[in-house]
Amino acid sequence: MRIWVDADACPNTVKSILYRAAERVGLELTLVANHALRVPASPYIRTLQVPGGFDVADNWITQRVEPGDLVITADIPLASAVIDQGATALNPRGELYTPENIRERLAMRNLMEELRSTGVVTGGPSALGDRERQAFANQLDRLLAQRPKT
Asked: pTM of the entire structure?
């Protein structure tokens, strides 16, 4: 299992949780972004800067993710793509995307995008709070405990 992070919009508090988890369990953590990132020095943590552009980081992750990997993203189309490839997708608020719920999430995303394109202001998600950070950390711990041991 490797952990991939769609890091352009990933909150720093979530990245900090991931850094500690990668060190604790000795898993490869790769943060993919279209800008330079500063991360702690670690044999388990690396960054990859991809060129700017629409979905470049998402496409890079999708092309390299393998069954059993974990992808951290709030991007629903990316989550759908990695689920289709046998990987697990978790958003920074602790919501696990599954084959059962991803289609509904895609439909809602498309509806909201259509509303925004017609001028309806729909707003964005609320700020990440303590409850969401804790939900993310708990879900991450559950997923890491379930991984096959090597």
From this structure: 0.87
